[in-house]
Amino acid sequence: MNDHLKIEVNISFNRNGRKASLQASSEQADDDLPIGRLPKITKLMALAIRFERLLAEGAASDYAELARLGHVTRARLTQIMNLRLLAPDIQEAILFLPPITSGRDRIILRQLQTIALTADWRIQRRLWKRILRLGPKVSEASE
């Protein structure tokens, strides 16, 4: 998937007294722009996929090297890479979670760690549906 997106924007700088303002205009209507932000878990899932590709291509030799390059601990990198142990349909669902428009993320990495370490994808799917239904109220102890 090497689709590239080209965005053209006209930018003008205006100086009013001591303050400078930046005005951007685009041919694309603001209504077409996505509202909100990507959930953090979506970003981490994409990162895990990218890291796996870097390992497969030989651009990085192991998790320790990826951790050094990413300025994170090896433990944190392992948590992120554990997302690749999820069933493919769960990974896809994570990648296509709706944007967060306000408040906290509904799904966090900690909730998915126990699921990812469950070998049976049928059980993973059942636990995933539970997280979707209950959101952040699901605790590790209840799983």
Give the strand line-up of the largest sheet: 1-2
Query: Radius of gyration over alpha carbons?
Result: 20 Å
- Contiguous uncertain segments of 5+ residues: 138-143
Q: What structural class should be given to the helix and strand makeup?
A: mainly alpha
β-strand number: 2
Give the overall pLDDT as a whole number: 83
The amount of helix comes to 40-55%
For the largest beta-sheet, the strand count, sense and barrel status come to: 2 strands, antiparallel
Choose one word for the global shape: globular
Strand content: 5-15%
Give the oligomeric state of the chains in this entry, treating copies of one chain as homo and distinct chains as hetero: single chain
Distance between the termini: 36 Å
Encode the helix/strand succession as letters: EEHHHHHH
Count, helices:
6
What are its keywords?
single chain, mainly alpha, 6 helices, two-stranded antiparallel sheet, 2 strands
Walk me through this protein's architecture:
With 143 residues, the protein is mostly helical. It has a domain at 40-135. The protein has helices spanning 40-57, 63-70, 74-81, 88-95, 109-116, 121-134, and strands at residues 10-16, 19-25. It has a two-stranded antiparallel ribbon. β1 (10-16) and β2 (19-25) form a beta hairpin. The protein starts with 9 loop residues before the first strand and ends in a 9-residue tail after the last helix. The model is unreliable at 138-143 (pLDDT under 50).
